[in-house]
Amino acid sequence: MTGPGALLVVGDVVTDVVAIHPEPLAPATDTAARIRTLPGGAGANAACWAARTGTAEVRLLARVGVESARWHERALVDAGVRPRLVVDAQEPTGTVVALVGKDAERTFLTDSGASLRLCPADWAPSLLDGAAHLHLSGYLFFADSSRELAEIALGAARARGVQVSVDPASAGFLAALGPQRFLDAVAGVDVLLPNEDEARLLAGLPEPTGVARAAAELSRLVPLVVVTRGAAGALIAEHGRITAEVAAEPARAVDSTGAGDAFTGGFLAARLQGADPAEAARAGCRAAALAVTRPGGRP
Fold first, then answer.
1. CA torsion, points 72, 75, 77, 82, in degrees to nearest 10?
2. What is the CB-side half-sphere exposure of residue 50 using CA atoms within 13 A?
3. Comparing C-alpha atoms, which of 187, 120, 130 is closest to residue 158?
């Protein structure tokens, strides 16, 4: 195809069960909620938001269970993504229950299922043919087999001169793995896309510390660090200093599930079109603002 090279996303496909409850959860009884079952997953969501621009080919490597493989593949194709889904005969597709309160903030209950069973045998060097960028979902680094696959993909991309980005994905899983272990695993990436909590954790800074300091510290390890801050927008740090601050787009939030994934997809699509980091972050903020106005994490 003409235009920018392809974007390859290696990550997770999960089934989201999103429960939006305007009232606080009532223990030991019923709480009224609007519940939807939707396709999701940080890697898949980011791929769909990137494909939404229609400016580059977007590929996705992920693992799903037999029971929902066709449904997920159809949803990805309909979104403009070219999926390579490995069907797992032992584990079902990962499932995330997202409890969304009146403030649109969400709490996740996560069963990773097949998603973290990606392994080196699932990798094919041809996935990088014609690719200009590789994006790795941070969830891959939280299990041994998928972490090994991610490191193989990272090494293959570096050998071809393909840019690589990583979204740390989950402060909770990151803390359990260990920040230094994560940083060692992603050594050599070009772009890191944490949220505020993940940035502080990776930088080894306490909660009250300004996120700008965390971003600057991390950019001594990774050339470009983009920290998403929800309604506060995004911070960009390069080579040890903050180089830009981008405001969020106004939006009436219904569900913040997948807002960070939308930012990632919008950001990466813009970078593939030649946007500088600040311009790409503005594109990411526009995608995130759209994402929070609807249930689930897809366009």
1. -50
2. 34
3. 187
d(CA 260, CA 264): 6
User: By C-alpha distance, which of 143, 37, 50 is closest to 88?
Assistant: 143
Question: Strand order of the sheet with strand 191-192?
Answer: 81-88, 58-65, 6-10, 131-137, 163-167, 191-192, 224-228, 234-238, 241-246
| Per-residue DSSP letter, 68 | G
Q: Please write the tens of the pLDDT for every residue from 124-155.
A: 999 999 999 999 999 999 999 999 999 999 99
Determine the longest span between alpha carbons in the chain, in angstroms.
58
pTM of the model: 0.93
- Which residues neighbour 148 within 8 Å (Cβ) at sequence distance 6 or greater? 119, 120
**Is the predicted pLDDT of residue 1 greater than 70, yes or no?**
no
Provide the pairing of β-strand 224-228 with 106-111.
unpaired
> Cα angle at 227 between 49 and 266, to 5 degrees?
15
How far from chain centre, in Å, is Cα 208?
A: 25
Q: Which two tokens stand for residue 286?
A: 């526009």
- Contact predicate 138/169, CB 8 Å: yes
Tokens found for residue 32: 């009224």
**pLDDT of the residue at 145:** 95
Angle between helices 42-51 and 259-272 (to 10 degrees): 40
Q: How far apart are CA 144 and CA 150, in angstroms?
A: 10
Model confidence over 175-208: pLDDT tens digits? 999 999 999 999 999 999 999 999 999 999 877 7
Residue 29, token pair as written in the block: 């009884």
Amino acid at 133: H
What is the token pair recorded at 225? 């660090």
